[in-house]
């Protein structure tokens, strides 16, 4: 987790423990700022090391599942392309068609939550 004000980092486990202990919305202990998962939000640059690792994993995958992405923001949108080029099957779950639907083995059009819940029910 990262503080949006002072960039202090803390583990997800620590924040989770504070939520379990009763804090509804844990704030940064140093400055009171807003804590968010240390993930890449829209408009933020992808971190170099994690991006390289993601492409490595994509190339080694047997099945690449895209859930709730329009696949228009690069370089992340190239991940399924790299996976397919390396031999993976591609499954896309999205509300609308994406530029890479033609590469997919399966395309499920619908809301991510509803579609995945229905899919899990069908599998079980
Ligand atoms: Zn802070």
Please explain how this structure is put together:
The protein is of the alpha/beta class and 124 residues long. The chain folds into two domains: 2-36, no CATH class; 48-123, TPP-binding domain (Rossmann fold), CATH 3.40.50.1220. The protein has helices at 12-20, 48-60, 79-85, 112-123, and strands spanning 2-3, 35-36, 63-67, 89-94, 106-109. It has a three-stranded parallel β-sheet, with helices on both faces. A two-stranded antiparallel ribbon has the order 1-2. β3 (63-67), α3 (79-85) and β4 form a beta-alpha-beta unit. α2 (48-60) runs parallel beside α3. It is globular.
Please describe the structure with a list of short key phrases separated by commas or semicolons.
two-stranded antiparallel sheet; Rossmann fold; binds zinc ion; 124 residues
Number of domains: 2
The DSSP helix count reads: 4
- Shape by Cα distribution: globular
Overall pLDDT, averaged?
93
Widest sheet, order of strands: 3-4-5
Small ligands present: zinc ion
CATH superfamily of the largest domain: TPP-binding domain
User: What structural class should be given to the helix and strand makeup?
Assistant: alpha/beta
- The proportion of residues forming helix, as a percent range, comes to 25-40%
Number of strands: 5
Biggest sheet layout: 3 strands, parallel
Span between termini: 34 Å
CATH topology of the largest domain: Rossmann fold
């Amino acid at each position: 987790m990262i503080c949006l004000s002072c960039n202090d980092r803390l583990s997800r486990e620590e924040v989770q423990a504070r939520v379990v202990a009763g804090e509804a919305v844990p704030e940064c202990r140093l400055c009171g700022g807003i804590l968010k998962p240390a993930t890449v939000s829209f408009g933020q640059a992808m971190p170099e090391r994690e991006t390289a690792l993601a492409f490595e994993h994509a190339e080694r995958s047997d099945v690449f599942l895209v859930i709730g992405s329009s696949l228009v923001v690069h370089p992340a949108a190239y991940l399924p392309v790299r996976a397919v080029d390396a031999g993976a099957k591609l499954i896309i779950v999205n509300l609308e068609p994406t530029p890479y639907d033609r590469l997919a083995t399966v395309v499920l059009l619908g809301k991510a939550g509803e579609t995945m819940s229905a899919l899990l029910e069908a599998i079980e």
